[in-house]
Amino acid sequence: MTLVPDAGRPKSAASRAHAWRRRVPPIVAALSLLALWQAIVSGFGVPTYIAPSPMQVVAVFVEKGDILWINFLPTLMEAAAGFALGNSVAVVLAIWFLHSQFAERAFYPIAVFINTIPIIAIAPILVLILGNGFAPKIVIAALICFFPTLVNMVRGLKAVSPQMLELMQILSASNREILWKIRLQSSLPFLFAALKIASTTCVIGAIVGEWIGSNYGLGSLIIEATYNFRAPMLYATVILGASMAVAGFVATSLIERHVLKWKPGAVF
Amino acid sequence: MNAETGVAADSGAAATAISVNGLVVRFESESESVTALDDVRFDVPASSLITMVGPSGCGKSTLLRAIADLVPATSGRIEVFGRSPKQARLSRDFSFVFQNATLLPWRSAIENVRLPLEVGIGNGNVDQHGEPHELLELVGLKGRENALPHELSGGMQQRVSIARALICKPRVLLMDEPFGALDEITRDKLNEELLRIWKETGTTIVFVTHSVPEAAFLGRKCLVLSSHPGRVREYVDIGFDEPRRLGMRDTLEFVQVTGYLRSLLERPNWERPPQ
Q1: ipTM of the complex
Q2: How near does any CA of chain A get to the CA of B257, in Å?
Q3: B243: preceding bond cis by omega (within 30 degrees)
Q4: pTM higher than 0.90
């Protein structure tokens, strides 16, 4: 008889119950903190413009839902477009670096340099160049995604065992075949590690872009709410931005789990 | 101890699969030059199974890699069925089995076996090949076709890699310590199965190992190498009764053969010329 752990085995009731038990502590902790927050704000009579209570923030979601939604969509679009752009450029560049040592030597230091400039300092420069539309926000979101993906992808494409390359040499495989059949797949764990970072930072990039010269999006809503002491609106916007990042992270992780089924223990 | 039974009689008449003549392999680096193999010469008769044994660092892996066109010869000649290693590689005359199974972790067993049919086939020399399902059956993995490598044990993974090596019906199978990473029980089992596969396919096998009993049990001939630099110490004919069974390793005859091989390995390097 062969005893082999079966990855596709359906989960038993016991393991499902165990999974639920693991989720209970964080939920209880979060709810307790919210209750504490509410108690402090009402108990000490903190003015709303300094710190709103959780109930006031919830009220904003109910009453000003349309304004939040209208500003949520452009930010989502910018973050998603930036995510796609930044990561695509990084992947293509990594493949180029793999095949050309010259390119790697020439451009890798430049990529490092660009990464060291604070994103908040690049934003005005890009607004001056690209204007007030979607373009600078997308580019900022792309820039912030770009570097981690480039570094990981360069490593991932090279993370092939020497024996595997010898096998391909014995099979007289071409570089193109090695790239498509071996390197790209074996780089996927590295790529997804980077994409998970990028899925949250692209939202930051889009919001920072909207701080400078914009009258729409979550970023501009944050600025406007701050200047007008509309603290509940400010908190609601921040929560919405954070939710967007979390949703991106969860989506990336789910795709990773599906794509990397072959990798034992590939969970997020 | 050149046993005269069986093998010795037909070794002269059979065609030659691999012929190595005056092979020298030297690795040059900026600071030093290391001679890995020096004046190595031997022939491998077609359809035979020969083993190579030697102390670590004697260049037995290098020798196998030179035959496989992975390491260039500094001087001397290697022929695989009359062709250069490169020509032999391009026409898929040989396959290689590594110490690690070297499977693609995202491909199922059967997809891994198919890999050689998907890459490097621009030369049109893969027109005749085996059937992946039959090969997995040959190596005893029927029913595990769709298992991913991490769902298989180390021994099973190595079986997949042997099936993959056989897919292009190679005339020569080069094996570099293929069972070295396995436990002894699995290793014994695979040794017996390798003999069965060898008889069923008729492929010439060159098997590198650092285990003396394994070399004696599998080999019809055993090439004993000395180290620093790697030279042929002796090319020993091994003529046990066929078929070979694991139990025969406890016979006096077998122990005498392994004892002789060990004495060759332990003997000081008196052949070495003064430098």
Answers
A1: 0.84
A2: 33
A3: yes
A4: no
Alpha helices in chain B (DSSP H): 7-11, 60-67, 85-90, 109-114, 132-138, 154-166, 184-201, 212-218, 252-266
The strand order across the sheet containing B94-97 reads B94-97, B172-176, B204-209, B49-53, B221-226, B231-237
B69 in contact with chain A, both atoms CB, cutoff 8 A = yes
| Beta-bridge partners for B44 | B18
| Between B58 and A264, residue with greater pLDDT | B58
Q: Measured between alpha carbons, how far is residue A175 from residues A90, A190, A211, B115, B119 in Å?
A: 20, 21, 46, 15, 10
* Cα nearest neighbour of A179 on chain B: B119
CB contacts < 8 A (A, B) = 71
B chain contacts of residue A177, beta-carbon cutoff 8 Å: 118-120
Question: Confidence class of residue B119 from pLDDT cuts 50, 70 and 90?
Answer: confident
Which residues does chain A have within 8 Å of residue B151's beta carbon, measured at their own beta carbons? Answer: 4-7
Q: Is A169 on the interface with B (CB under 8 A)?
A: yes
Does residue A161 contact residue B102 with C-beta atoms inside 8 Å?
Answer: yes
